[in-house]
Amino acid sequence: MKFELEKAIEILAQTPATVTTLLSSLSEDWTKTGGDQARWEAFDVVGHYIHGEETDWIPRARIILAQGENLTFVPFDRVAQFERSKGKTLAELLETFAELRRKNIETLRSWNLTEEQLKLKGIHPELGEVDLEQLLATWVVHDLNHIRQIVEALARKYSENVGVWKEYLSILK
Amino acid sequence: MKFELEKAIEILAQTPATVTTLLSSLSEDWTKTGGDQARWEAFDVVGHYIHGEETDWIPRARIILAQGENLTFVPFDRVAQFERSKGKTLAELLETFAELRRKNIETLRSWNLTEEQLKLKGIHPELGEVDLEQLLATWVVHDLNHIRQIVEALARKYSENVGVWKEYLSILK
Questions:
Q1: At CB < 8 A and 24+ separation, what contacts does B108-115 make?
Q2: Mutating which of B3, B10, B148 best tests the A interface, going by the most A Cβ atoms within 10 A?
Q3: What pLDDT digit, counting tens, does each position of A48-98 carry?
Q4: pTM for this structure?
Q5: B14 with A21: Cβ contact below 8 A
Q6: ipTM, 2 decimals?
Q7: Do A3 and B152 lie within an 8 Å CB cutoff?
């Protein structure tokens, strides 16, 4: 599908509301962190979204748009939320995420990006040269990737309860 | 996690609202069917949820609860939606799904199931003996499985747009 900013924003705009609808009426048994960086629960994923809003997508877009001397992005800490979310409730995290995302979409829209700007380059510290359009498309897919991770974490709780049906449920594999 | 009916219902109750929040503000480019039974789009998944509400979960629970002569479930048609959703809009399907689910949860609650009833058996046409608790746990995981399928279908649209980031995005693999 051709990249169009407004269509990318359609996905970016729904994510906090979707994740809130998915999680906010669930008991903590479904969502609470286990503190295990190798096995994220829903709580951990929401903290990760927040850290991305603060340090990843818009800051990296700014580096690209500025086209300054150093085009290399600051490495992103993928497990920062295990410290940063401590003591917070899931409801607080969901609100923070929604507010940060709202502001970031506002910022993104305010840039009125041209086709030329979407082709400007930056340097990913591990992957090398990337452009702004790829960064924005990745933001979109990253949102979806972590909705997927949330539903996988929820499904895992019932991995034994389903009995022989496990064979049919690809999410449990 | 131990199966508790009220916690299972927490997941069952949010699914139509979550899927509606996820999809209802998206352009058709993201969601429309391609008519391909091997590659479901969001539209196809919502039709599949509807068919499950009508012919799978509650009808099978009734067979188990009745404990009649024939405990074998009617086979479920997993691709019925490719015919049945024809000519409908996604918004119509989302409304139908929400309404059917609301009624089915009402039915489920009205049974006031006991621990003994949850252990009653039925016969799956392919998998063999299953019990009511497993059927209900499978309903829950099936919901999550298809939210996962929806976000995978959406992410696929940008599988090339993300450039070298593809390597980091497990949803694209």
A1: B108/B5, B108/B9, B108/B12, B108/B58, B108/B61, B108/B136, B109/B9, B111/B61, B111/B65, B113/B5
A2: B148
A3: 999 999 999 999 999 999 999 999 999 999 899 999 999 999 999 999 999
A4: 0.98
A5: yes
A6: 0.97
A7: no
